Every structure is written in structure tokens, then in C-alpha cells.
Amino acid sequence: MTQKSLGLETMAPCFQGLFPAMLYTCSADGVPNAAYLSHVDYVDPGHVALSFQFFNKSKRNISQNPRAMVAVIDPDTGQGWQLQLRYVRSETSGPIFERMALRIEAIASYCGLKGIFKLLAADIYEVLAVERAPEESAMREAPAARRQPPDAVFTTRALQDLAFRIHSAECLEQLLDSILEGIEQVFGFSQSMILMPGEQEGVLVTIASRGYAETGVGAEARFGEGIAGMVAEARKPIRISGLMRGMLYALAVKRRAQEAGLCPDDRRIPMPGLKNPESQLGVPLLVRNELVGVLCIESEVPYRFHEEDKTAIELLGSYLAIAIQNMLLRERSEASEPEPSAAAVRDAASAPRRAPLCNIVFYGKDELIMVDGEYLIRSLPARILWKLLRMRHGEGRTEFTNRELRLDKALNLPEWKDNLETRLLLLRRRLEQKCPNVRIVPRARGRFALELGCEVTLSERP
Amino acid sequence: MILNVITPELAAFVEGGVSIHIAACTASLEPSGGRVAAVAVDADGTHVTAYMPEAGSARIVADLQANRQAALCFGRPSDDRACQIKGEFVETRAASPAEKTVVDRQWEAFLADLALIGFPAKVTEGWQTWPAIAIRLRVTALFSQTPGPGAGAPMQ
Predict the structure, then answer these.
(1) Residue B27 CB coordination number (10 Å)
(2) What is the DSSP letter of A134?
(3) A31, A355, A381, A450: most buried by Cβ count inside 10 Å?
(4) Measuring CA to CA, how many Å separate A378 from each of A342, A407, A415?
């Protein structure tokens, strides 16, 4: 039965890569070929794009004979569909190619296959007919056939609602938390995280997360690595709905290797993440083309993020980026508070100390801090904590200002955009998670106290 | 030496419960294809019988009768091992009730392999396997299709 009235635009779930598609071609002398295909993408009501990743028999056949058939499966209903196609052209640039390439690269990066699993071209085909595959019928209790495209998630109204929720944030920490809380309450995505550029160029650091057993605060992603790193590199949103099963297998292999201890512990904090994400969305947070951060959202439900949401998602990214950057500027401008009073210093210094003991070791060469033998943090936040602990230990000081940290040449903060407030927030959150007996407590704008809930011993090693 | 006979090891793979698709085309070079539920390889490896659900077979059978060329693509979901068998159409007939056991066994094994990678069972519940058409092919060439180096190369 020909389903001309169904329309390609209502078949979005079939194009999410949840099931590998099957491409049928035949050579000029009539030898047929069947091959798996990683991506079929919707182009317009009359065209689809097929991923061209390898010079193979299918590609040779198409160069001889433009007719093809691609079979896809609707993951909602189980219904198989056969699309009769005619090859039109190959695109190696432009929005369709870039969208497909980004998705493919993101999956490749996620699985450690970057550079191997890549898109050579987006092959555009005219769709001549769409037919049901008779042997792949829909499940018995299949949802009613779609007559409309799936509901958009990121509606203007939802964006307004989120904006309203984050307006009242007083500081960066509140702002980041209210963004992630809003994303759960307004859009229904309960797993999300925000990464911001780290001290080292080309590295993102997880600064806030929501919905994960391990917060992963402090976890790093290099540009080009994983969804967040890909977004940072490309500065474009990435939407992966239904991570391909084959790619999940690669991940499983990697995980098993890690469980078996085959992958060395490189003292890195693991990224937060769902074990089996079905949909992932990465949004660059850009202000005038400057990357303020990356927002990542995950879901265990396939294809939660639709093509129709793309514009709204970019809008969301810009809005959040401006909100975060404004807050950073505000915190920095208001951080020039005077030195803490001597009375405050003495009062806090005389606070009673309690057992147990906490051993803190600073490794100078690697610039990292271990607490009771467990990794805490490295780089600038480690240098800051070490300075604070030593000052507290040596001089009895308990209150500090952001300003004095900025002026301390030994900390080696960059003069322009030092992101000190972000580093302090990161440090505070890592301490809350891994060493609750050492606390950084905000006292006023640009001023904080270092509180100890137990006796600490400090030692320095190369 | 390039193979055009299915070895016992390859027969065990293709009969072991994998995803199978058959490709054909019309005389005017319009490709057709569909899902196959199971296969049976002759003891000497020179012929293979594909059991295709009758529901999806009409166009394939017509194309095979017109053009006589076929390709069978096999893929195991859990490890992506894949291969292709090219064949020349010999005959088609209704599968006998005795052959249903072969179809059921391979189909169950295929579903079990899908389950290994967390594939939702309800998606395949409407897919048909029986009644089936038996399509007999003479093997003409064998190709590896496992992703990576060597994909698409003739089997040695």
C-alpha cells in the first residue's frame, strides 16, 4: 500500500538511527546489493539524505544506477517502511552535511572512533514512493499513526517559563542550579549538566549537574571529546536521538575494559552520565561567539529532541549564555570587597576543632590535591585551596577575599577573564562532595571563609 | 583463493540467528528487498535456502524470476559481524511445515541476540515469519561486511 498521504515529515522517529537502516542497490548489470547504513536523515517532504561514510559496493552501484531502496523501522510502532529512491547529488558542505557530520562525529568521539567513523558526504535522494514493509507490521498495541509532526519540546512559552525561574538567582551557583532545575521542571529533563571552559585551553570542566548519582563536578572534557567537547569545538547544538545500537556496543566494550582494570586510572573525575542514554542534546552557550559553556541534557527516552526544536534550542543557548556571563561579570565587579576584619579572623580562628583527622597532600608537580589518599582536585582550584589551607594553618586566617586571590601572583591567574568565581564554585562543590570537613562558605559578595570540621594535616610532595 | 562455497564455520554463523535481508531488482534495475527469517545451507555449501515471510515476498519473487540475481546480507546485532552472499536464483516454493522448526529456532536466537543489546522486544512482536516462502539460491560469491578494514572484500 502506497502511503503518499503519510509524508516523510511525519516519519521523524524512523530517521533517528535507533534501528540501522538497510540500503538496497543494484549494479548496471543487475547484481543486487544490501548493506547497513548508519544514518538516514529527513531533508524536505520529497527528499532524504543518506550518510556516505565508506567507498563501498553501494556507492559504486549508485554511480552506475541511481535507483535505490532504503528500509527503515519506526521504533514507536515496529512498522517497517520502504522508501523508493533516486540519487540526486552528494553534498560535502552546507547545513544538511554539517548536521549529519556532527551527529556522526559525536557518536564516533563518544566511542573513541573519531577520525575513523566519519561522514564523507551527505547523499541526497529524491523519494519516489513510501511503502509499508509487509513482513514488518506494527506491534499489536501500536500508537495511532502520526498525522502531525511530534510535539516540540522547546516552545517559546517553555523558554519564557525557564527565563522567569532563573531571573531571581543572586549568584552564579544559584543561577546554574536554577537553570538545571528549570530544565527539569519546565521541559521534563531530569538529567542535565553545565560545563564551562577550564583553566587549560581546549578543556571544559563540569561545574553543575542534576539528576545523577555522582555529580561529576570537576569532570573534564577536552574539546572534540564526547558530546560536550564536540559542541564546544563545533559551537553548534548536537542532538543525538537514539544512540545507535552498534555504538552502544562499542561503549559496552570500553566499559567492560574499564571494569576489568584494563584502562589505567588517570586521576580524572568521571563525567556524570546515564548508563544507557537514548537521547542526548548538547547546546553551546555563546555570547558574541565566545563560548561561555555547554549545556548537556540526557534522556532515557529515544528521540526526545526534535529537528523542529533546533531554533528554540539555539535561542535557549544564547539566553543562558548571556545570563551566565552577566552573573560572572557582576560577581567579579562586586568582588572588590575590603580585607576581612581582624575580629572576624580571630573569631573564626578560635572555633573549636573536632576529630577525626584529615590528611591533605598537595602534589606540586602535578598541581593536585589528594585527601586521605583520594583525588580531590587539580590545577587552579588546587592551588587556591592549598594557599587557603596554608594561610589558615600558618597565620590563623579563616576569611579571604576574591580580590586578594586575584592579586596573588603565585596563583598565576590570567589577567583577562580569570574565571575565578567559577573555579571557587567548582572547588566548593568538590569539597562538599569529597571532603565535607573542609568547607568554603560565602560570607559576602567576593568574600568567603574556610571552615574546618576536623583537624587537618598538610603535607607537600613533589 | 576467493570463496564461492559456504564453509561450515560461515554456515554456523548465518544459521545462528542473525538479522537477514534479501536484495533483488527488476529487469529495469529497480532494487527491492526485505527481511528474511532464517536460512538453511546445503551440506556442501554450494546452495542456500532463504525463508522469507510470505507477506513480504511477492515483489522479491517476481524480481528474482525476472532478473535471477540475489544478495543475502547477514548481520549479528551484538557484535556487528556481517557478511553478504551473492546468489543465482534457482527456485521458489512454499516452505513445508517441517521447515518451521528451523525458522522458529533461528528467529528465537535472533531475538535473543537483539535482547543482548537492550532492544525492546515489543518492537518486533508484529513482525511475521510464517507462513514462509523458501527461496533457493546457488552461491556465486561471498563478501565480508563487518565494519572496519576489509569490509566489502571477497572472502578468501
Answers:
(1) 10
(2) T
(3) A381
(4) 31, 20, 20
Per the CB < 8 A criterion, the answer to whether A279 and A305 are in contact is yes
User: Which A-chain residues 77-106 have CB contacts (< 8 A) with chain B?
Assistant: 78-80, 82, 84
Beta strands in chain B (DSSP E): 19-25, 31-36, 38-41, 47-53, 69-75, 82-94, 132-144
Q: What is the pTM of this model?
A: 0.67
Residues in chain A closer than 8 A to B79 (CB atoms): 249
Q: What angle do CA A234, A236, A239 make, to 5 degrees?
A: 110
Interface size, chain A vs chain B, as Cβ–Cβ contacts under 8 Å:
133
> How far, in Å, CA of A123 to CA of A38, rounded?
13
Q: What is the DSSP string of A320-389?
A: HHHHHHHHHHHHHHTT-PPPPPHHHHHHHHTSPP-SSEEEEEEETTTTEEEETTEEEEEHHHHHHHHHHH
Tell me the shortest Cα–Cα distance from B42 to chain A, in angstroms: 22
Q: Scanning the structure block, which residue is given the C-alpha cell 510535539?
A: A151
CA torsion, ordered A74, A80, A86, A90, to nearest 10 deg: 40
Q: Which amino acid is at A134?
A: P
Residues A26, B25: C-beta atoms closer than 8 Å: yes
Write out chain A's pLDDT in tens, 462 residues: 444 555 888 887 788 776 788 999 999 999 999 998 878 988 888 999 998 877 678 989 999 999 999 999 987 788 999 999 999 999 999 888 988 888 777 766 666 666 666 788 999 999 999 999 988 887 766 555 443 445 566 777 788 888 888 888 888 999 999 999 988 888 888 899 999 998 888 899 999 999 988 888 888 888 877 788 888 988 888 877 655 544 543 443 344 344 445 444 445 567 777 766 777 888 999 998 889 999 998 887 766 676 666 677 778 888 899 999 998 888 877 655 555 555 445 444 444 545 578 899 999 998 899 999 889 998 899 999 999 999 998 888 999 999 899 889 888 887 777 788 889 999 999 999 889 999 999 888 888 999 998 888 999 998
Distance from CA of B111 to the nearest CA of A (A): 14
CB-based contact A136 B127, cutoff 8 Å = yes
ipTM of this complex: 0.96
Is the CB of residue B135 less than 8 Å from the CB of residue B85? no
Give the whole-angstrom CA distance, residue A13 versus residue A9.
Answer: 10
How far is the C-alpha of A331 from the C-alpha of A308, rounded, in Å? 36
Which amino acid does the sequence have at B98? A
Mutation target to probe the A interface, by most A beta carbons within 10 A, among B20, B25, B59 is: B25
Q: Does A69 touch chain B if contact means CB atoms closer than 8 Å?
A: yes
Q: How far apart are CA A393 and CA A162, in angstroms?
A: 44
The verdict on a CB contact (< 8 Å) between A32 and B71 is: yes
CA distance linking residue A19 with residue A38, whole number of Å: 9
Does A126 touch chain B if contact means CB atoms closer than 8 Å? no
